[in-house]
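U., I forgot to send this yesterday:
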Amino acid sequence: MALSLNEIKIRAQQFVLNWKDKAATAREEADAQTFENEFFAIFGVPRNKIAVFEHKVKLLDGSNGYIDLFWKSYILIEMKSPGKDRKKAFEQAKAYANALQNADMPKGILICDFVHFDYYHLEKNAELTSFTIDELAEYIELFLFLAGYKDVEYKKQDAVNIEAAEKMGELHDTLKEIGYTGHQLELYLVRLLFCLFADDTGIFEHDHFIKYILQRTNLDGSDLAMHIQKIFEVLNTPKEKRLRTLDEQLARFPYINGGLFKELLPTADFNCAMREKLIECCALDWSGISPAIFGAMFQSVMKPEERHALGAHYTSETNILKLIHPLFLDSLWTEFDKYKQYTSEARVTNLNALHDKIAHLTFLDPACGCGNFLVIAYRELRLLELAIIEELKSTDQQLLDVGEYIKVNVNQFYGIELEEFPAQIAQTALWLMDHQMNRLVGSRFGQYFARIPLVNSASIVQGNALALDWETIVPKHNLSYILGNPPFLGARVMEKEQSAELAMLFSGVKNAGNLDYVTGWYKKVAEYIQGTQIECAFVSTNSICQGQQVPILWPNLFARGVHINFAHQTFKWSNEARGNAAVYCIIVGFSLQNRTEKQLFLYDDIKGEPKAQTVKRINAYLADAQNVFIDSRSSVLDTQTNPMVFGSMPNDGGNLIIEENEYAAFLQQEPEAKRYIRPFLGAEEFINNKKRYCLWLLNAEPQHLKKCPLIVARIQKVREHRGGSSREATRKLAQTPSLFGEIRQPESGHYLLVPSTSSERRKYIPIGFMNSSDISSNANLLVPNATLYEFGVLTSQIHMAWMRTVCGRLKSDYRYSAQIVYNNFPWPDVSEEQKAAIMQKAQAVLDARSQFPDSSLADLYDPNTMPPVLTKAHAALDSAVDKLYRKTAFPDDAARVAFLFELYGKKTEGLTSRAKKQRRG
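Result:
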């Protein structure tokens, strides 16, 4: 299991501390091998098992050379004493590298004189990165490949797409204002889009569309619609069937076919302003517009009220590439790179076979929207095809007709979309991408190549994917891949019809009403792919692999033979559009085939870039761990542990709450009320040291309350609030209006408070002890009578790792729950002596906090402002709690989680066995 990036950086810092003082006086002969061994230890790999010292190579001149340290295909290191010529050392190392076989060629060469590091990226034309030993931790990501990480690069969107989308949105609005709406408006815009693109990409003569409008239509726009209508008619008519008297400028428009211009639409009247908007659209250079932006463009166009969040509803190209690379692209390119190295006859045979293979791959997006996934997948397949053709055909060989070599086509792609307009866009976008790729092929071989008129098209079916029989769209034995991003709708926000669809799909599955809408696609796919080798991958909200949904959904899928083969853990949904959507996603790749090597993409920062790890297993929580299910549990797994409960819920319409700005005036008017006012803590107040109060009237004497008319008035408002509720249970509470709706406050002593929601930025959820006189709201969870031992374990890194893996989330924030996180947590078996040691270190954490009385817990646990003394106290506590579970240290959170899952499996298996014995008895 690869070390986490944080652990590697910590080890790098320790390496620097060990060597910085002696580096300047180190000697190559005496110290190099020790230095190199310790350098490899930073990455958790044993040097003696993977790299050799003094590796002998036969140089090109016939002499022998000896590489100081060599790890095949990874790194070549040459060590020198301080002050030696490092450039000369690089020339020597380069000679060694040139003498190696291609398969052994390392990713880079490191020249080091103990003080200076020069790293030459051989995969980037020997690009040089230099730094000193003091800067090693800052540059450590250069060497993450030594720990098993893979670089994952994704292209970014071009911002010019956004301007194009906004211009089309304005044109949409003006047409809609005059009453040109619905299906006719949608199709009209699709046709205009095609014309704009065709004008800049060689489908039409360059700028022929805009020139026609400028030269032939009136400035007031009065005849513009008539001319556009005629252009549409011409585009739908083969040249041999056009009238011989057709206007010459119109005759120069090509025949398009494909059905795009077939339907006769009503004429859309224009005015001067509308004509100007169309001209503004024409003025943009549409040749660089990515068809992958069409999802954002046209969903924005159709929903003007959401245009402020342009791009919020489509998956960015970056995230699509995160999915399709591990799904199919990486393996295809690996094949290509392998076959390139073969001898001439085998090379040609295998490259041709690969070409035929990709020409027969088929793809289905069962929630395709505007076709973004299909468009990008098609583009990447065409780029691979182009590389194959270039490899097969030498640059000096003239191709008579490049079109004869193109086999990949849009008819390999299928989609299902609920709405008509996005379905049309998806089909059109694939045509446009096809033309862009044809232009690229033509430019590479010095030929013009276009598939006009259109003959083949993608099969985009309009309909409800959860209700359709997918076999009628594409027989499953003809399909290779299923991919996409089904709708992001939570269980509590679905329409009745959508809930009914899920209920039908998950008939008989307990608690299926808690599943998100996207799970319907997982269930549908699991049924569809039976008996096939189809590989699948979806972008989904992270909720389906966290919290309560996991034990509902995934046992059902695994029972059908589904295996998770790659996954991206939680990351922020991102694109380059304005108004990014705040959605946190995962990617799950799965099939009935269990890959022996799986890829797990980890995020140290969910807004950052992923690091790839190769693992043998991925469970339903997207962890490299045993496949267990953390179901909702009403009582604690460890019966020796104190139970956790919610705080008290007012259910009062705000009438029992006194805000900080009300407090002084309230007491001034009613001093007698002071005995009934208590501090009131929600998660926000607890974490941020905010003041809030409540009326706590439990056991209050009536004769005292009568002396407090302000309190009595508030009680009356509570009665009215509850009495007017639509819930019977709330109406019953109107009989006791002076009390909180639900009371769980400890009557004496102290309790441990855990906020239900906490920021993902924090390494630790801030928890703490409170007195029973401090009233906690139901925004918190409480452990009455907790000791320092419970506090120590719950605030430890191993418990935080468990929480982050199994808890639910609110956006990216952690949602701590008693039933999922706390009650299922596998506590260690400990002695009283071990408990005492933990309590001592837990007290040290509290003591460190107390040194900063004016700082809130938010301040203390902000990763940028956390005091070193508190960091040190937590580190000591973390280490002590880790040792309760096993003697050897955990290298990172992934190892902690894997261990806890196995321990959970053993503990729950024991409970199940005892329950069976009791039933038999």
